[in-house]
Amino acid sequence: MTENYSEDTVRSLDWREHIRIRPGMYIGKLGDGASHDDGIYVLIKEIVDNAVDEFTMGYGKTIEVSIKDQTVTIRDFGRGIPLSKVVDCVAKINTGAKYDSKVFKKVVGLNGVGAKAVNALSFYFRIQSIRDGATKIVEFERGNIVKEEKEQPCDLRGGTIISFKPDEQIFGHYHFLSEHLEKMLWNYAFLNNGLTIIFNGQRYVAKNGLLDLLETNIDGPILYPIIHVREGDCEFAFTHSEKLYGEEYHSFVNGQHTSQGGTHQAAFREAIVKTIREFYKKDFDPGDIRSSVVVALSIKVQEPVFESQTKTKLGSTYIAPDGQTIRNYITDIVKRNLDNYLHINSETAEALLRKIMASEKERKDLAGIKKLAKESVKKVSLHNRKLRDCRIHYTDNHERRFQTTLFITEGDSASGSITKARDVNTQAVFSLKGKPLNCYGLSKRVVYENDEFNMLHAALNIEEDIDNLRYNNIVVATDADVDGSHIRLLLLTFFLQFFPDIVKAGHLYILQTPLFRVRNKQKTIYCYNEDERKQALTELGAKPEITRFKGLGEISPDEFKHFIGANIRLDPVIMKKDMSIPTILSFYMGKNTPDRQNFIIDNLRTEEDVVEQEAADFGF
Description:
Low-confidence stretches: 96-106, 614-620
Shape: globular
CATH class of the largest domain: Alpha Beta
Number of domains: 3
Mean pLDDT: 83
Structural class: alpha+beta
Radius of gyration: 27 Å
CATH topology of the largest domain: Heat Shock Protein 90
Largest sheet: 9 strands, mixed
């Protein structure tokens, strides 16, 4: 039966309802904090953006951020919101001073939405503005005012203090990962010379802009010193890595991390190819020039146009409404500065030429193998039993694109359970036939010559770069035993060796699955570790039934749907800034057997140790 479409079916939502019903329109995806772009981090970013905009306009050199008991507090020392407009600025949609380009120029916050979205999606939200020796405090719950104090005198330094606690009704049981927060705050520091950010007592400050950013993020040796240029509203730094395959970009607009690039990044990619071709007077293939390049790029644009509220991709064509195109602006700066640099620094010019020639040779050597590999993929087709694809992909312009997930499983039994339990719209399954090859130290030729790797990287569509990645989340789903751990390590080696961008961009995860099922006639509890098992035993009382899952294949599809749905638990694969990919791979996957043996012996726990620990845990 079809419902009648009438006047009664048409609803008008107020701003709070709309944000809470359609949070994806305002903060992208939700998530539980495992991914760097989950909604709880976007909430923090929206408030910090406002504080940074104050700094950009010349007000306040310090921003304080703290997180305690899931409550975030952000304090700036800017001008402070006019006290009579405090409520409007956080609870009246499309209200703010950033519509006035004379007051806020080349800033991130544009639409008067960010702080309102944080307010509406928070269980608790408190704002205090301090201005001209007076202050006003207002408290909200899920966007509704619960307490509004009158203006009163105040001797604190001017600025704005905002505290909020994300709403578990929206975000579920979320958790903040310090690694994601630290990277976000470091980016703010790198992009704003003179700004100091204090996060839970730790100071974040940088003196050399994007040069510092690149030196912090580059992993392994580089082929020549970083080229760093600042001119006008553009800054860039780049070099070529000795180990990296593909391209790596850290791009920003008005201090906003544009993780999906945009017109400014496309312009830089064109400009570097054009300049290098003209300098060497050779028509190099663009891929040979850009292969293994690592770039940090920042541009300031007046009234920028982003492709979504989360501002991850720049859509602007012009540097300002009445200015030249972004493409011409960046091309001119790159061409003039890079050409001059290469003429002055002959050693760098020679190193760059050697790199391009090496990339060209490798490309030509791989050409025949790539052709055969592509033919092999076409013969068996991506729709073979290895890949059970989903209907929506990360490259689609679809509201659920961020949920797209590829589970990489071991064996038919595990993949069968996940396949039957998955969401066919957003979840795909790739089944391994056994342990993949240890590819450490091998050339990229193995990606095409090894059937398993060839099929996997074709399924992901990452041959050239990760711009066309078909799934936002790549999840390694292996058994919680020694063999499963080994397979996991081999897959991590594959991605870190040949596609580190996948890891650095936050796309790679490890699936957590329960180790135990504890149940009685009334209730079933799934436990992911020993602590949860003990809590379940306490909760269910005397003699519940305990099942220890030895492998994913033992978990029925009916049960598996609970572990890959809304309550999925994922461990992100994160490379901390003090970690070196070559060093890690060499230690764990290289031929330094004595070093590993000593490490194992030093960290070995005997059966007696385990028994003693369990006895202590249970009070025996």
